[in-house]
Amino acid sequence: MGTQRTIGVDVGGTKIVVGLVERDGTIVRVERYATPVGSTEAFLAGLSSAVESLQDESVAAVGIGLPSAIDQRSGTVVFSANIPLAGLDVRSWAAEAFGLPAAIDNDANCAALAEWRAGAGRGTTDMVMITLGTGIGGGLILGGRLYRGWIGAGAEVGHIVVDADGPLCQGHCTGRGHLEGFASGRAVEAAARRVLGPGAGTPELVAAARQGSGPAREALAAAGRWLGAGIASLVNLLNPELVVIGGGFGEAFDLLIDPVREIVARDGLAPARDVVRIVPAELGAAAGVIGAALVGFEALDGAGVPAARG
Amino acid sequence: MGTQRTIGVDVGGTKIVVGLVERDGTIVRVERYATPVGSTEAFLAGLSSAVESLQDESVAAVGIGLPSAIDQRSGTVVFSANIPLAGLDVRSWAAEAFGLPAAIDNDANCAALAEWRAGAGRGTTDMVMITLGTGIGGGLILGGRLYRGWIGAGAEVGHIVVDADGPLCQGHCTGRGHLEGFASGRAVEAAARRVLGPGAGTPELVAAARQGSGPAREALAAAGRWLGAGIASLVNLLNPELVVIGGGFGEAFDLLIDPVREIVARDGLAPARDVVRIVPAELGAAAGVIGAALVGFEALDGAGVPAARG
Fold first, then answer.
1. CA-CA 20 to 30 A from A169: which of A54, A218, A300, B61?
2. Which has the minimum average pLDDT: A20-29, B167-176, B189-198?
3. Which residues of B touch A275 (CB under 8 A)?
4. How far A232 CA sits from the closest chain B CA (Å)?
5. DSSP code string of B39-76
6. Span B211-232, mean pLDDT?
7. What is the pLDDT at residue A1?
8. What is the DSSP letter of B105?
9. Intrachain domains B5-110+286-301 and B121-281 with the same fold
């Protein structure tokens, strides 16, 4: 038997990234395809051909990362913002479609698994990953394993309450004062428009801050203070060794970290606040496909995430 | 070899409760002593004689629950509000003093372990315990084990931030807007004085609410809404099957639960918010001594909490 690899599938709202990946997280080959979102059938057909483009005799399992809330008891998507998947048992579908062990997971959990096994969190046992993108996702490594919650719906770091009865949350969420409403890329867009004009977005705000704009730096510092309040809650609740900050907006780590540390020092309890390290992610956007492939290895090994057999 | 029991020690600011306890959490015998707080030496002498009052040939280990922040790497108390223990390796001291395997833990972790093994959480794998007392403590059962955090300083449920930059927290905490400042017994005392006069406390407020006082019911509902925001954060982050509410102020469960559920329904994400159950604790004040004894069984078994050998 030769080297076993898995195919990781990182499903986004606009593209599907598939990777042939080794057990240590090394990407052997990667392909990108547009995400068909017109219908469930079109999406699944696109997913099939994406995976098949990498399938060879080394492939022992498939792991799929979805931008969705998942019920791991049934392998079913409960909520999916951009792709018509709600109610679908994607896990069983994949096992049957590819004739291989298959598992699915939330994309933020995949990113956490990747950073833990192959990125900034290597060697730790207790790590929180925060993915700052348009929204905020998260993943929890607790006691040396990815903790998904009772039915796989945990680690929604963007939806911890930092301002009870505060502004209505984003998207489909009916909550108020959630972290995502203050410290996500989308939350910062309003500040970008205010500081730089109606056409500006988060990338321009970050660039302006790096160029020395005081108002831009202050807007990002405000987001960093909110993020610090959320991280303080995580530190007090979970006492992690490491907090890893990734995602597209997370690339502004250098502009966010001082206010984050200021609030963690104030709102964190000793000794947890004194031992935690807060670092940037290392794998960038590749974390999604690497982590999905590592979920595939969990399916292969029958450990960690629930799996279906092909 | 006969039945193995452990001695559990529940150390409080005013009394030390010691219990001879079976593996299933059954208390065989229990004694209460005043807590000597004049000096570390006096405290340890009192702790010794309390344990020795129950020691017999069935006793295989000792577990001690402390109202303290603990660093489990060293067995050392990091912070202790009422008892002069900071910097002391209580675990090694106990193993040597009693000639038995010994372990220590935070009192709220002990209560969680007790409710999980012998109380409201029996049979669950993913449970959050919230102890509403003068302050707010907590314990996390995640994936079928008590999760203490990287160095044992986690589960500080009272110190999750629900109102960033809000009022200064209680006691030694330098944080702002922590849950404990809004939903603990001490936080409700101000409302009790406002509603019932300067001599009133939380018990009178709860009694007045049960007798139908509108202002008293409203004050407790406000605390329940804050608690709901905290529980929503826990639900979104940890996706527990069960949330157990205990502690002295937790006996007002019936007056708090409707506003708690209202906010969890609003601020919680599907599917986690739809599957969680929120229930009252079953063991009352006995949870502390039972849980400490169960920590003793963990020391005996060499699993769970770090232990010292006598």
1. A218
2. B167-176
3. 150-151, 153
4. 7
5. -HHHHHHHHHHHHHTT--TTEEEEEEEESEEEETTTTE
6. 98
7. 57
8. E
9. yes
Q: Which tokens in the block code for residue A100?
A: 């291989």
Q: How many Å apart are CA A305 and CA A5, to the nearest integer?
A: 17
Percent of chain B with pLDDT over 70: 100
CATH number of A5-110+286-301: 3.30.420.40
Could you tell me which CATH class the domain B121-281 is placed in? alpha beta
Inter-chain touch A161–B232, beta carbons under 8 Å: yes
Q: The domain A122-281 is classified under which CATH number: 3.20.20.80, 3.40.47.10, 3.90.220.20, 3.30.420.40?
A: 3.30.420.40
Helix (H) or strand (E) holding B233: helix B214-238
Instruction: Collect all residues of chain A within an 8 Å Cβ-Cβ radius of residue B238.
Output: 147, 149, 154
- Cα torsion through B237, B242, B243, B247, rounded to 10: -140
* CA A309 to mean position of chain CA atoms: 25
> What dihedral do alpha carbons B287, B90, B53, B5 form, nearest 10°?
60
- For residues A220, A224, A226, A231, the Cα torsion angle rounded to the nearest 10 degrees is 160
Q: How far is CA B96 from the centre of its chain?
A: 26
Contact between A150 and B268 using a beta-carbon 8 Å cutoff? no
Confidence class for position A170, pLDDT limits 50, 70, 90: confident
* CB-based burial label for A198 (10 Å; 0-12, 13-18, 19+): exposed
pLDDT at site B32? 97
Q: Which among A153, A269, A275 has CB closest to B272?
A: A153
A130 within 8 A of A231, measured Cβ to Cβ: yes
Query: Both tokens of residue B240?
Result: 């527990």
Can you say how many angstroms the Cα of residue B205 is from the centroid of all Cα atoms in its chain? 23
Domain ranges of chain B: 5-110+286-301, 121-281
pLDDT value of residue A2: 76
8 Å CB contact of A140 and B237? yes
Segment A83-119, tens digit of pLDDT: 889 999 999 999 999 999 999 999 999 999 999 999 9
